[in-house]
């Protein structure tokens, strides 16, 4: 068993945000596995097999990658952003847990620029103080838990980043999340909608919670909410380092 | 006023984790400003002036960079990790707030691989579910607020990342943080001490909260705490994507 598995983050979209470590791993790969639009970011070449699969088949994709690596291939699973943040790394270890025979496989996770940090950089420094990251999708957890975490995060006065805020399959939950935030944080709290960050379709919009509308987010949007001190300076948004 | 200011993240240490975007910004700079060990990571060359300063002078450093940019220089402020996570970006906007004449200055923040994501990648996928990031230093906020956030984060069952867990000036607070976590999360919760990640001095150690000792952390350590489902698989630590 001399194969290997690398779980690599491609960053938010711009090639200038792909780390040299990930570029080198892709250059050494025999197989690249991932969700269709992420695999499409890898240049085809001789000796490299691309395995593109649909969304929502993370475990199946992780198993496929483990099997290829166990068969001696040098496999890279690609995620957008960072593979450890609501992406493929956790799915790979979940699949590994069910395959004890593979526990000695050579697996490496290579970090990437995750969407919330790319979005924060574009806006200024909205995550410049303690913050949290919440996946708003209830595919893998009950919605009640999401609501509970939103309330506790507001009580802790964390700045917040939301991944997967809204999809066609569940259009009403993000409206509910905004309601909870308005109750807990007040109408003047700043909220940033960052869509397709660092790609040609990038759009960054900052409004108050009073002005926020559910339609401002879709599945390509990461949403950032400031803490009670987050403010505008010139055209930037920042959260002060200090707190009372 | 045709100067510019870039606030760039150098990542956790390994040059292979510096994004091409940051490398290009450094190649175009006339001046690099930053804390001594970070400026030391930038190769000297003709036409580039290096301005290295001591720690704990973030605002002064931000002002110096703004003044150089206002005078027409192309300035890069370097942070380790990501500049927006407990680093220089917030200090720059704080300095900008006090200098309204400079609000039209060309300022860009370039993201980097922040320590918690590099550490998580080395360990496996401990931040694979909702998580929070807390700066444990009380230089800029009351310690009582840190304790409050630890309790709320545990109540929300967030995985957690702690920056600046312990310094010579405040050796006892991290012991108190561990006490609070043991009370709130129980003795079996996994905690990862990741020191000098991606450098030759890297050391990653995973223990339970019962086994954790304050001396396991210093100022070069980022500490990760799992949520209630975080577990070992083989030699990796991961947090499942799903929750009940």
UniProtKB/TrEMBL annotation, chains A, B:
<protein>
    <submittedName>
        <fullName>Precorrin-3 methyltransferase</fullName>
    </submittedName>
</protein>
<dbReference type="GO" id="GO:0009236">
    <property type="term" value="P:cobalamin biosynthetic process"/>
</dbReference>
<dbReference type="InterPro" id="IPR006363">
    <property type="entry name" value="Cbl_synth_CobJ/CibH_dom"/>
</dbReference>
<dbReference type="InterPro" id="IPR035996">
    <property type="entry name" value="4pyrrol_Methylase_sf"/>
</dbReference>
<dbReference type="InterPro" id="IPR014777">
    <property type="entry name" value="4pyrrole_Mease_sub1"/>
</dbReference>
<dbReference type="GO" id="GO:0032259">
    <property type="term" value="P:methylation"/>
</dbReference>
<dbReference type="Pfam" id="PF00590">
    <property type="entry name" value="TP_methylase"/>
</dbReference>
<dbReference type="InterPro" id="IPR000878">
    <property type="entry name" value="4pyrrol_Mease"/>
</dbReference>
<comment type="pathway">
    <text>Cofactor biosynthesis; adenosylcobalamin biosynthesis.</text>
</comment>
<keyword id="KW-0949">S-adenosyl-L-methionine</keyword>
<keyword id="KW-0169">Cobalamin biosynthesis</keyword>
<keyword id="KW-0808">Transferase</keyword>
<dbReference type="GO" id="GO:0008168">
    <property type="term" value="F:methyltransferase activity"/>
</dbReference>
<feature type="domain" description="Tetrapyrrole methylase">
    <location>
        <begin position="5"/>
        <end position="212"/>
    </location>
</feature>
<keyword id="KW-0489">Methyltransferase</keyword>
<dbReference type="InterPro" id="IPR014776">
    <property type="entry name" value="4pyrrole_Mease_sub2"/>
</dbReference>
<dbReference type="InterPro" id="IPR051810">
    <property type="entry name" value="Precorrin_MeTrfase"/>
</dbReference>
């Amino acid at each position: 068993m001399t194969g290997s598995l690398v779980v690599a983050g491609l960053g938010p979209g711009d090639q200038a945000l792909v780390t040299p470590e990930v570029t080198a791993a892709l250059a050494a790969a025999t197989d690249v596995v991932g969700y269709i639009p992420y695999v499409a970011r890898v240049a085809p070449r001789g000796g490299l097999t691309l395995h593109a699969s649909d969304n929502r088949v993370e475990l199946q994709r992780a198993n496929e990658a483990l099997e290829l690596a166990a068969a001696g291939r040098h496999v890279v699973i690609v995620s957008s952003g960072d593979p450890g943040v609501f992406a493929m790394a956790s799915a790979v270890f979940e699949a590994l847990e069910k395959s004890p025979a593979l526990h000695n496989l050579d697996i490496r996770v290579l970090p990437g620029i995750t969407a919330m940090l790319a979005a924060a950089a574009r806006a200024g420094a909205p995550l410049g103080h303690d913050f949290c990251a919440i996946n708003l999708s209830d595919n893998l957890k009950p919605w009640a838990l999401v609501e509970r975490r939103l309330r506790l995060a507001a009580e802790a006065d964390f700045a917040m980043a939301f991944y997967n805020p809204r999809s066609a399959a569940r259009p009403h939950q993000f409206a509910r999340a905004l309601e909870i935030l308005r109750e807990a944080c007040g109408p003047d709290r700043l909220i940033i909608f960052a869509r397709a960050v660092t790609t040609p379709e990038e759009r960054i919009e900052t409004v108050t919670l009073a002005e926020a509308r559910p339609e401002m987010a879709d599945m390509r949007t990461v949403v950032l909410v400031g803490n009670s001190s987050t403010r505008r300076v010139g055209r930037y948004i920042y959260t002060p380092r200090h707190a009372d």
